[in-house]
Amino acid sequence: MTSSGQDEPMKLQLYSYHRSSCSFRVRIALNLKGFDYEYKPINLFKGEQKNPEFLKLNPIGYVPALVDGDIVIADSFAIIMYLEEKYPQHPLLPRDLEKRAINYQAANIVSASMQPLQNLDVVNYIEEKVGPDAIIPWVEKHLGKGFAALEKLLKNHAGKYATGDDVFLADLFLAPQIRGSMKRFNFDMTPYPLLARLHEAYMQVPAIQDALPEKQPDYPST
Fold first, then answer.
1. Contacts (Cβ under 8 Å, ≥6 apart) of 84
2. Is 72 helix (H, G, I), strand (E, B) or coil?
3. Are 116 and 138 contained in the same domain?
4. Buried b (16+ CB within 10 A) or exposed e, 168-200
5. CA pair distance 198, 160, nearest whole angstrom
């Protein structure tokens, strides 16, 4: 599969970890754009993100990181926007400016106000400084606040997906966040019927199915 309508095929490289929701977002974007990319696993639990070789790509030591020829981009939001601006196939943003703004807002709620507060570094810090019993109340507080805001934000904009009947930017952030919250923390989505419905719709989208953690080459076999 070629990178776009260009003459020569291009192989992007994605440094990813199967369970990382940030990597999950980018995998969905790459699938929607139609890329056959090279998967470069970085095991967060083994500390591979701290290796000097990887830190040259992303000095903050997080996944994902994308290599496109001589260009290196880290941070999932930056990667997705780079892909959107460089490769026009399957647009990830709607033309309508209001809906586009809603997509930005939803993506930011997830990427700034939810996911960072439940990532591995934060959870490990809470366990170390406060105790393991503090993890679930902490996570549930911040997930609940974020999901409540998203439920209200999308109420008048959702169609089959978050802002209509096409998968856009907001969906790339919502799909991994909702699924990860349910799988990792057994979070109850019953109070958020719109988001629960979106989750069901996401699990039927091939580009999302192929980006699932268990479909990745670094997913544990046992």
1. 29, 91, 92, 93, 169
2. strand
3. yes
4. bbbbbbbbbbbbbbeeeeebebeebebbbebbe
5. 7
What residues contact residue 102 under an 8 Å CB cut-off, 6+ apart?
153, 154, 157, 162, 163, 170
Q: What is the structure's pLDDT at 3?
A: 43
Q: Where are the beta strands (DSSP E) in 36-133?
A: 38-41, 65-68, 71-74
Do residues 2 and 10 lie in contact, with contact meaning Cβ atoms separated by under 8 Å?
yes
Q: Which one-letter amino acid corresponds to residue 37? A: Y
Predicted pLDDT at 8: 56
Q: What is the number of structural domains in the chain?
A: 2
Considering only CA atoms, give the Rg of the chain.
17
* Contact criterion met (CB below 8 Å) for 135 and 72: no
Burial grade of 14 (CB within 10 A; 0-12, 13-18, 19 or more): buried
Buried b / exposed e along 43-73 (16+ C-beta atoms within 10 A)? ebeeebbeeeebeebbeebbbbbbbbeeeeb
Q: Which residue has the higher pLDDT, 167 or 45?
A: 167
Distance CA 62, CA 73 (A): 12
Domain boundary (26, 56, 90) is at 90
Q: 3-state DSSP call for residue 148?
A: helix
Greatest C-alpha distance within the chain:
56
CATH code of 129's domain? 1.20.1050.10
pLDDT at residue 221, rounded to an integer: 86
pTM, entire model: 0.93
Residue written as token pair 């000097």:
52
